[in-house]
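Okay, can you check this protein?
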Amino acid sequence: MIFRTTPTHRVHLSGTALAAVCILCLGRPAFAQAFVPAAGEGNITIAYQNLLARGHLDLNGERMEGAAGTDPVYGHAITLQGEFGLTDRLTVSAAIPFIQSRYGGSTPHLEGGSGPVQEWDDGHYHGTWQDFHLGLRFNIIARPFAVTAFAERVIPSHHYPALAHAAVGKDLLAFAVGGAVGGFLDRVPGLFFQSQYSFTRTEEVVGIRPNRSNVESEIGYFITPRLAVRFLESYQWTHDGFDLISFATPMTEALFHSDGTNIPREFRRYHDQLQRGNFLNLGGGVGFALNESFEVFAASSTTVWGENIHPLRGVSFGLNTHFSTRRRRGP
């Protein structure tokens, strides 16, 4: 396998560093990004996800050879998230997931690339809190469609292991900015949509920033005033980082830039954080309002295309509660 960086970096890694970080972490909090609550109102959500990532896809989107193409990672995630309207246009939000994961394959990461098995890849479940997501949303236009700008700060809750198949995240600071648009379509009563774009600038590691762009969309339909179904899409493109290349022949132990200069061996310890992961996930969901304050929901999604990632399949369930700190003006 080769880990190659783009556009200007290239590095060869030995077979002891075969895998990248498993994308078990939850993405942006699942609140409606285009719509903001009224001043004094908010939402609290708790969601559970069951996750399975099997094998690796290389830079061409093909499964890697041998165990690297089939080794599984199992995960369970519980996310707590909340939002509150400071004004009718400005909303603050916060979220943090707790993730428990287990590597079930035969080629675990080794400490330092050649030492004992990394603890998180020892075949047992390990769990920890991942990253804080702290955000602001500002509604620019409310009608006929909502247009909202947002910014979000991602802060690791602590320094957790980032070099492991079963790692829960990348342990990197990040800052995201973007915009969202959404609304209802009058010609088809009950049909709604929203879509958002974000650009995330990440913490620099060994001179590389794996910055990324994301496009997340949904189209939904209210079957009844309480029951809605949704089609979900999530796309990511990472602008710089390492690529995975499969080879049938053993790899060299040396590390080189594309220009032939040597790279220190300790450089390999960062390859999971700097992987250039690209993917398209598609899925669907359903939500049911129990009353004006509580909603239950379920969703599932799977990776239909990817490069340099663990293809992921997940199922989630959750409960959302709406609250108000003042007398409501209307339904």
